[in-house]
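Retro notes - structure team

What went well: the batch runner handled both jobs without manual restarts.
What didn't: labels got mixed up in the shared folder, which is why I'm recording both outputs here explicitly, each with its sequence directly above its tokens.

Job 1
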Amino acid sequence: MAVCSAIRFGLIRSRSTVRFQNKTVRSSHTCLSAGDIREKLRACAGGSIDLEKRESGIAVITINNPARMNALSGSMMLELEERVHDLETWSEGKAVIVQGAAGTFCSGSDLNAVRAIANPQDGMKMCEFMQKTLTRLLRLPLISVALVEGKALGGGAELTTACDFRLMTSGGVIQFVHKHMGLVPGWGGAARLVRIVGSQNSLKLLAGVKKVDPDFGKQIGLVDEVLHCSSGERNTLDQAEQWLSQYIKGPEAVIQAVKRVVLSGRELPSDEALTAERNVFGTVWGGPANLEALALRTKHK
């Protein structure tokens, strides 16, 4: 199983990371074994999750269900997992941008899908499925960006927290509306939110259902950059790629190694993170990029 996870996730072959990989694989395996919930999700069709891989090493995932403000139908939840799996094995990749179609990000779960799995048992299985899919998205060896144009509501707000960075257009809004539905986040959004903005701000956003506009988002650290788009300017995706370019200059092996050491530092105990970092260092030491830099006598500027 450790070998399979190394192939799928491209994580480091160390004792500590194998342990971390196994956690990931067990999560994935649990999802795959939930055939009953998959069939119910598949029956709730509508929309699509589109994936484009570019020669620049940037992939673009588009949540495409404009008739329902890009709400995730059951079939879209399954497609999202498939797209994430595709990116787990993309050796030429450096980054992924997650965006919504037609000027809005995502309004959470499609109510038709919610009604179809309204009983507690199915609700828990759907929750587990999405929790693990978004965890795999966050653990990709790619730098990930949520491009929030328009509204990111409920599960859509949770999706933004499964990316490394969040960019927002001037009219964008992130809002955890779960309390209005008599719920709390279930796709891992609350746990990730606390890590991003702290417990006090998380309470404000979840208990107060506070709208996060670009200014407030930057103030609390949920939004990394605000994109100001107007007629005559490049579109939001072009601006997002331009912003992202500062972090993905260089060979993909090095960019992926950077993401791996950050990932291990974030999720592993300190001693295991140090071991993982040492092993990632070993994968790039003496590699093509390192040897080229030494040959050119590259110096810090």
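Job 2
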Amino acid sequence: MENTTLTFTLTAFASLQKYKHVWFLFFFTLYVTAMFLNLLLVSVIHQNNQLHQPMNIFACILCINEICVCTALLIPVMIFLLSKTHEISVNWCITQLFFLHSYATSEFTILALMGYDRYVAICYPLHYHAIMTQSKVNKLVAFLGLYPFIPYACFYSTTLQLSFCGKEIVKMYCLNMELLKNACSVPSYQSILGLALVPVMNGPQLIMIFYSYVQILRVTNKVSKRCQVSALKTCLPHLCSICNFSIGAFFEIAQNRIDMSHVAIEARIFLSMYFAVIPPVANPLLYGLGTSLVRVQIIKLCIRYKILPSKKAKKVIPTETLTSNKHCVC
């Protein structure tokens, strides 16, 4: 209970004070862009019944997950930029930890389920709707809502037992690793628990993604060139999302393990926030503009509100999805 009155100083903000208004404008633009793109994609998919397919439902959940992390991360960052003090309480630190851990776990899990969906769509197109039933999708969505609480409960229950001697966090937000660095002493089981949770929480997703794409490659090697191109177009947004998130996660993990003091503070800030601010901007573009049926509905919406000239509508021709292309049955 003594930890509840403790505060930490986020030291990364001190180096940004000279241009704090420029940084505020940058993060504000990032936040508004991410909110607009994610809410637009969710609205378009929600309003069009023909888009209520498992892949698009997972894309909506991905957007909601990214809306939550942007709000939990960028709003405090903007407040601290304009604040005279950069202190954060333990309670808010723990809350921010929840959103960041939940985001990372959920993001990777959603991407794994999307990989499974692409595997079923490409390898079993005629049985796709029989396998990806509404009941199954509902269960997977419920699982996505509960799964992030497992790692957070483990971190939360052990972190609160620690006593903190340090009061500085060399980042713009809280991380479990930063809290451990400020602890007076860290029990040996804490490190073991942290290492054990990595394969437990991320191993199944890695296996699912790897297995899905191995099977997709195996099957597409047996079909025509046209079907291979169609499969690539279907998988490309998902592959880009995986690469984007993996790069951001690698940057964050590397900074916690490698001495980055020789790197410019601006570069360190970008690398540390990449995993939580770049995917929320990139993913709605990938699944909105990169998916033909969704792209058509977005363009129609823009035409309806006169954002685009009506002559653009004649150029929009939706392509058939892979699941309905019987020539590509594997």
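One thing worth noting from job 2: Residues 312-327 have pLDDT under 50 and may be disordered.
We'll revisit the folder naming next retro.
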